[in-house]
Amino acid sequence: MTDDVLVVHGGTPLEGRIRVRGAKNLVSKAMVAALLGDSPSRLFDVPKIRDVEVVRGLLGLHGVKVTDGAEDGELVFDPANVESASTDQINVHAGSSRIPILFCGPLLHRLGHAFIPDLGGCHIGPRPIDFHLQALREFGATVDKRPEGLHLSAPNGLHGTKFALPYPSVGATEQVLLTAVMAEGVTELRNAAVEPEIIDLICILQKMGAIIKVHTDRVIEIQGVPKLHGYTHRPIPDRIEAASWAAAALATRGHVEVLGAQQADMMTFLNIFRSVGGEYEVTDARPPKLGDPGQEGGIRFWHPGGELNAVALETDVHPGFMTDWQQPLVVALTQARGLSIVHETVYEQRLGYTEALNSMGANIQVYRDCLGGTPCRFGRRNFKHSAVIAGPSKLHAADLVIPDLRAGFSHLIAALAAEGTSRVYGVDLINRGYEDFEAKLADLGAHAERP
Ligand SMILES: CC(=O)N[C@H]1[C@@H](OP(=O)(O)OP(=O)(O)OC[C@H]2O[C@@H](n3ccc(=O)[nH]c3=O)[C@H](O)[C@@H]2O)O[C@H](CO)[C@@H](O)[C@@H]1O
Ligand SMILES: C=C(OP(=O)(O)O)C(=O)O
């Protein structure tokens, strides 16, 4: 831990331009989808982040040859020789990411059995996988929970089913998609999640030969097909990373252009950003033509000077305000005049990081009640899932330990916004979802160094 520390000299506005590549929450699933094809797949703009390395390792163990393509960030997956891996080999990746659970359907289709290690991911609530396992059983899989992990098999193959999710879970929706595309017959999924990353996964599966209809009211219908081929795909950019840098610009009174950021996927964030008092400008991409080098699209975010405004917001499933945007934005809200309210309705325990902000001078109280307009699943269950942020607060430097990915980025922003020198421990965790964040900090003029 002692060498996993960043020394941050705060108080300098972030100024400059950075680029985001493929979304962490899509790229890793696109990689799993490559297992379903009977020919190679090609994925562009793959960021160098930890979750990609984990999935690459797991694919390799299952016989998928993963090679770097000609373009920077291009990966090629050859699934010609899919094979079983030993539980010991697979367990090397235990506890490192949530993506292994999505190997169930593709491995059952390709091998008739699957072994899934303990999952990792951010510690922001209990994060059960009951919807996943219930759905897999409905498809005809048997699930055996053992101390070393989950063993699954499908002795009679997988068959389409009618299934309603108790909550529009992103992962469980992806589980159903990755399983249904090659299950025999039709699957109807109700109360599905419809995040942009899910729609992009559907686009990939459709490119592979799948038949998927997205109806209104969160209903997705999948007609199983006997075989799929490889895909070529450029993924949607990372809207969480883009919003994180936007929040950093606001909290440090800076000006950051995020190349690659896409307005359509960030509308809800942009509305809140503007309500808080931040300014932004969207630049549309223009392809190069003779005599015109063209232009890369993106969004410029900045603090216009003066005071920020307090806001009330609730995190929610798409098209609501994303839970993963919450932690970085709260740092900016500590600088807004008045009382801001944040009601976290997606995860039970995603406000623990506010203690660290309070240790830096913020004034944030957390409550068990639903302080937003709508009562949520956590209201009567004793989880501190609403926050009241009183501002503006002068942040001062502190020694911080990063608890999870987005909280980690929020600690980093707080250290950059604070007066003085902070030591941020456990920063390697940020590499799980933010490509080259230290180089990007340097490009934005941040004063941060490894001791
Ligand atoms: C790798 C990835 O894409 N991670 C994202 C994904 O996580 P992930 O797919 O894990 O999140 P889910 O949408 O599944 O979780 C939402 C809620 O459903 C609950 N639930 C989920 C599954 C289940 O079987 N049982 C159950 O109760 C969870 O505990 C949580 O309270 O979507 C989240 C919500 O946008 C994001 O914050 C994560 O960044
Ligand atoms: C919660 C997150 O990720 P994961 O599901 O991978 O833990 C996140 O990206 O903020």
TrEMBL record:
EC number: 2.5.1.7
Keywords: Cell cycle, Cell division, Cell shape, Cell wall biogenesis/degradation, Cytoplasm, Peptidoglycan synthesis, Pyruvate, Transferase
GO cellular component: cytoplasm
Main location: cytoplasm
GO biological process, one term: UDP-N-acetylgalactosamine biosynthetic process
Gene3D superfamilies assigned to the protein according to its UniProt record, in alphabetical order: Enolpyruvate transferase domain
Span of domain Enolpyruvate transferase: 9-441
Binding sites annotated in the UniProt record for phosphoenolpyruvate: 24-25
Active-site residues (renumbered): 122
Repeat found in the keyword field: no
Name under which the protein is recorded: UDP-N-acetylglucosamine 1-carboxyvinyltransferase
Organism, as annotated: Micromonospora acroterricola
Taxonomic placement: Bacteria, Bacillati, Actinomycetota, Actinomycetes, Micromonosporales
Gene assigned in the entry: murA
